[in-house]
Amino acid sequence: MLGLNKKDLGVLLLVALLAMAAPILLNPFPADSGMAQFNAGYPDLMQRFVIFGIFAIGYNILFGLTGYLSFGHAAFLGVGSYSAVWMMKLLSMNVIPAILLSVIVAGLFSVVIGYVSLRRSGIYFSILTLAFAQMSFNLAYSVLTPITNGETGLQISLSDPRILDGANAPSYPNLFGAQMNSAATIDVGSWSFTFSVGYYLCALLMLVAFYISIRIFRSPFGLMLRAVKSNQQRMNYTGLNTKPYTLAAFVISGMYAGLAGGLLAAMDPLAGAERMQWTASGEVVLMTILGGAGTLLGPVLGAGFIKYFENIFSKINDNVLHGWFSFMPDGIEDFIITIIHPFVGKGWHLTLGLLFMLVVIFLPGGLVEGGQRIGRLFRRKKADTNTPDGTKTPAE
Amino acid sequence: MSFSNLTRRGLMKTGAVAGAGLALPTYLSAASHSGFTNAPQGDTVTLGFNVPQSGPYADEGADELRAFELAVEHLNGGGDGGMLQTFSSKALEGNGIMGKKVQFVTGDTQTKSDAARASAQSMIQKDGAIMISGGSSSGVAVAVQGLCQEAGVIFMAGLTHSNDTTGKDKKANGFRHFFNAYMSAAALAPVLKNLYGDDRKVYSLTADYTWGWTQQESIQAATEAMGWETINDVRTPLAATDFSSYIAPVLNSGADVLVLNHYGGNMVNSLTNAVQFGLRDKQVNGKNFEIVVPLYSELMARGAGKNIAGIVGSQNWDWKLEDQLGARYTGTNAFVQSFGTKYGFPPSQAAQTCYAQTLLYADAVARAGSFNPCAVVEALEGFEFDGLGNGPTLYRAGDHQCFKDVVVVKGKENPENEYDLVEIVEATPAEQVTYDVDHPMFAGGELGNCNPGA
Amino acid sequence: MDAILLQLLNGLDKGSAYALIALGLTLIFGTLGVVNFAHGAIFMIGAFCAVTLSKIFSLSHLASEPSGTDFLGKPKYDDVLYIKEWFGESAGAWMLDWSVPLSILFAIPVMIAIGFIMERGLIKHFYKRPHADQILVTFGLAIVLQEVIKYFYGANPIPTAAPEAFRGSFDFGVLLGFDPNAIIYPYWRLIYFAFSAVIIGGVFAFLQFTTFGMVVRAGMADRETVGLLGINIDKRFTIMFGIAAAVAGLAGVMYAPINSPNYHMGMDFLVLSFVVVVVGGMGSLPGAVLAGFLLGILESFASMNEVKNILPGIDQIIIYVVAIIILLTRPRGLMGRKGVMEE
Q1: How far is B64 from chain A (nearest CA, A)?
Q2: Which residue among A377, B206, C137, C149 is least packed, with the fewest CB closer than 10 Å?
Q3: Residues 230-249 of C with CB under 8 A from A
Q4: Each residue of A2-12: pLDDT tens digit?
Q5: What pTM was computed for the model?
């Protein structure tokens, strides 16, 4: 079905199921319990999960398949965001033109940068992409302020022309009237689940992006890219010009980044220059490697992992800790809090850094390998029952 | 299993959403009952304190957080009450806000507009925060203010000094207690004239982004009005850490005053570099060479160490105000007392503005008798108050900016400890720093209407 | 003319800092083939060695008699420095004043030890792993180191002054016949320049004129063959890592008075040092030094108003523009060797 083999179809369906049920799955704890701190099922974070998932899936097409390590992909994300916001300022609050333009502009941008950067390989390529992205960031922050609004970031305002919108059109990004921020909350017992339009739009696009990425992985084109990774020289000696292939991969991943940038702006109409900074480019590299470069599911896992820490762990302050451990005797409570304190709240970076190291030391293939190991353990236990285990088996 | 807030029709619609992501009802759980976002339910109300906890401003963020915690303690009737006792409005009774106990959630802005918005979103969507406060840069303040406007909650800005926050980017749901670049310049100009005369040539270095530009524009206008001449203005990259190449040519340019329109790490480094080059020991045009840093902050002064000796700048507030300039600044000592008792050192201006903002919000709710953002906006607009440490203050209705005295300070030559680095030169009265709502430096935006959310 | 000379001088000074940081990075790149994202953090720890030593010198106890009242109206006790009690008033004051130069002695063993521990404990296991894994693990390490420093020292910059004797600046202009104040340059920055020159020269001499250096250079060129010759190259690589850490650390120590150290200063320099190394060419020490000076000088010139008026914003991007031009015209940077990290 859909041109996929059984295993890939299984993975796709599983991802679809997880994405659709995410508002429920990510809110496993009752809203008023102490553990609710760990709930991630609110629209903004779920949107970020899937948007950065798209970004990482796209990045993986370049890095995972060809081995070209780009350090400037955030530039495409940023360019996508800026074009989307401009579209919403000038044309219409409908997100369709905004997202389309962001993909197109990011694509054009990546053709130029890719064409130049791909003249070099290895670390020379990485530094070229880094240089282009840092130039974009520095200029967007300062000289290009008339276009980018610099430090404060580009926002929509009441006085924007929006020539396609009528007088009564919604003043928030929408899809034919359905506003991105509208949501339905359902309370089930003490649980509370929020289903938002924006999230489902992002999730659907993520599934499309994921599907395309599977097709690319399984196509002759994907095979060619892998050949580039394993030995580009040999490819060149056989008389094959690899550059069109790598450039195509670069542009595709640039367009994915543009889509992610456009969606970020569509969910929350703001485009800031920080999105283009090298740290943002580094983040997608980390997401991909952390999850498992070259695997289908890895980048999505990596994106979720990092965004979860950024948004959930950073919010655990001492008050929350006291709330959790208040059942203990005072001395022990204080002792435990003293130990945990450096790792949460303002120390969330520390925990993230430690986990980077632990994952890469003990799971050389990234989080996906962790899943595989658990899967193997699971299978060994019931050696005879042949369970098709989609989650644990990466497509690679 | 109980389905509150759910009808069969609603369920079908939700199914349609999940399927197609199209056409669905707009109802937020609380909104459907009360008409505004995150209406407090039960006997508590949640405030969101969004401060930088990582990155270069983490220490400033930590100080803001201390002030927020103190404010919440005082609102809930704990501690010694701090500025609640000196505050001119007596609507707050120490029983939370309108009898609801105040709770708070915290987040990390990372001093990036994206991260700050993500953090604020999670407070609004997940924790049900009804007011967001804090922050340590104008980029973040403008970004979060825009978000709060869209989401329908109140934003009480923390440390943000750009004219734009209450200028071209002002929003109906956003309020700023902190002063701004125009006020800094207006307050500094007469003091500079007294100290350095009316015939000076200025060379300025300006951080190359929006705040730097508004600061430079303001200070140039104010100093030229009193007869100074600006001979050069050089833009420096935000990412610069070493300013030597910008400072090296200063001495030979004929200028006798260097204005550093920098903040944070930029300011610490550019000032350190300028002092390293020995500019302060030189004589140009027969006058002592002087350095001016329009926006001072205690933490940055601490980072620059001895280099700040003798350097003039402006502050929103200083913890020594009441002791040195008298009862006009009542509230200062009460706040310093309770902050110092709790944490062991005096508060920074960032802490004071955050504490004041929290009290002002709570008081506005109490006076309005409602948590509805539109009622709060109405209560804050045109509100005149006193006793929060800054002297008599007005929250102007036209742009949601506070108008109060501005403190002009100077780096101490021999500081006694790291919390006592500046001495107060004088406080410029509010009238001198007041401008029209449609002043050209603030033009281009509109407040719009208050947004109570869904 | 004087303006150009001034920027040239400033560029040399900036360049010496860049070259020194890039030197340590390229030693690790070139000898071990490891992409070390923690290099900036090592530089930062070096600067904090200076901070730490001056903190140690400032250790104090409270005087027994109060000297007044503090801001809350409670009795205040003055700090009495141990160092002044032990070494006498003047010697104690001298040590405090000279804490930055003294911390060079303190930093060398500390940094070499950190280098050894890093290499033996972590990096060693990543020689054969893909560069991507090296990036992830060293980036994680950089974050951890940085957060540990933040935990103990806070996020605010910590002023660390140079000795009193080196404050102020030297007037070159008078020497060259220009007006007074035309070309002035701070003493400490001149010392930094000289210090870098000595360290860079020392590292080159070490690699060029010692047997140890010869083996390491051979190992850089062809690790397998050197191993086949029965030489324990691993041990030497560990030592090289220690040396690289010490070089970066010393660069940090001496940099502390120039800009107050803060916990994220390493990240600020990380990108820059990578650009310098790659522009210089992978695996080439002279290339890294050359690129450091080149970028430093060009950056200085780009910050001149005369240049900025023609090309607005050029000082924001000059480094990247130069990097792109050089990498496009010279495939392996200025002096890079074929085949090093080109895959």
Answers
A1: 13
A2: A377
A3: none
A4: 788 898 999 99
A5: 0.90
